[in-house]
Design a protein that fits this description.
Largest sheet: 6 strands, mixed
Bound molecules: adenosine-5'-triphosphate, magnesium ion
Strand order of the largest sheet: 7-8-9-3-10-11
Number of domains: 2
Shape: globular
Structural class: alpha/beta
Number of strands: 11
Distance between the termini: 30 Å
CATH class of the largest domain: Alpha Beta
Strand content: 25-35%
Length: 276
């Protein structure tokens, strides 16, 4: 399978008042076209910085970016070339974040925000039909188009953000902790929706998460990040069964301990369990 995204040896540093802070020191990642890849690691390991770099969202300076190679759909790009990346953003890839409220305009009805995204990417679209289609796709009732973000629950806001992201029919969705701020039941619903969207749209997924169970449920492959480096990579099944890096082992032990303490997530038939 061809890769939709390849990134080799990424380094990202920030110039903070004359001091250099290394956020990502050596990260490499590949996402196969239509595939699902997880990126896990402890807080501060550089996951969001990597995602924001891919989306061309870091301002240079203060960010200093370097990569041996970076390609999207086989097209080679300069890592800091924001103009080229912004042309792809919204056409080839889109992103959803942990806190949808920060990315939704509080003063604009949800329907208008979806409409803006639709118009931006497809000037000739039958806009109202497309808005309705997108709401259906993320299982939001049509009335949500007339709601303001503060009138929605956290799960509904994340669905609204997904509808905006999907407006451009992305080939790759980057999801940075899309369920971390939600309660467990809503988390499961959003994960099920992501799985369904992937299946229906044939879209690739890069899922950033603290939660190994989510990654095991949704992703074929996983990358583990530690201290700004991608230290381990492979099929989820293999990595979770026999992690080779001590850090990955401790991440799995922590997930198991948390899981046996809470006993909230049951294993689905056929799905991989990190509960051992
Ligand atoms: N704009 C910035 N300026 C300076 N340092 C930054 C900036 N953004 C991120 N960093 C630093 O880069 C490192 C990686 O941060 P990042 O947010 O990518 O981690 P993360 O793995 O996404 O963590 P979390 O799981 O908590 O979201 C951290 O040490 C952080 O303080
Ligand atoms: Mg983060």
């Amino acid at each position: 399978m061809a890769d939709i995204l390849t990134l080799d040896h990424l380094r990202v540093a920030f110039d903070v008042q004359g001091h250099r802070v290394d956020a990502v020191s050596d990260a490499s990642i590949r996402v196969p076209d239509g595939g699902s890849v997880g990126l896990v690691g402890e807080s501060g390991s550089g996951k969001s910085t990597l995602a924001r770099t891919l989306m061309g969202l870091l301002t240079t300076p203060p960010a200093v970016l370097e990569a041996k190679s970076f390609a999207v759909e086989g097209q080679s790009l300069q890592i800091g070339d924001h103009a080229a990346i912004s042309r792809l953003r919204g056409n080839t890839f889109a992103m959803v974040f942990q806190d949808p409220l920060s990315y939704l305009n509080p003063l604009m009805r949800v329907g208008r925000q979806i409409e803006e995204a639709v118009r931006l990417h497809d000037g000739r679209a039958a806009v109202h039909h497309r808005i309705s289609e997108l709401l259906d796709l993320v299982h939001l009732p049509q009335r949500v188009a007339r709601s303001y973000p503060h009138e929605l629950s956290g799960g509904m806001r994340q669905r609204a953000l997904l509808a905006i992201a999907l407006a451009c029919r992305p080939r790759l969705l980057l999801a940075d902790e899309p369920t971390t701020a939600l309660d467990v039941t809503t988390q499961m619903e959003i994960l099920a929706l992501l799985r369904e969207l992937r299946r229906e749209l044939g879209m690739a997924l890069l899922l950033i998460s603290h939660d190994l169970v989510s990654v095991a449920e949704l992703c074929d492959e996983v990358y583990v990040m530690y201290g700004g480096r991608t230290i381990e990579h492979g099929p989820c099944r293999e990595i979770f069964r026999s992690p080779s890096h001590a850090y990955t082992k401790s991440l799995l032990d922590a997930a198991r301990a948390q899981r046996s303490g809470r006993k909230v997530l049951e294993t689905r038939p056929g799905a991989l369990s990190v509960g051992g």
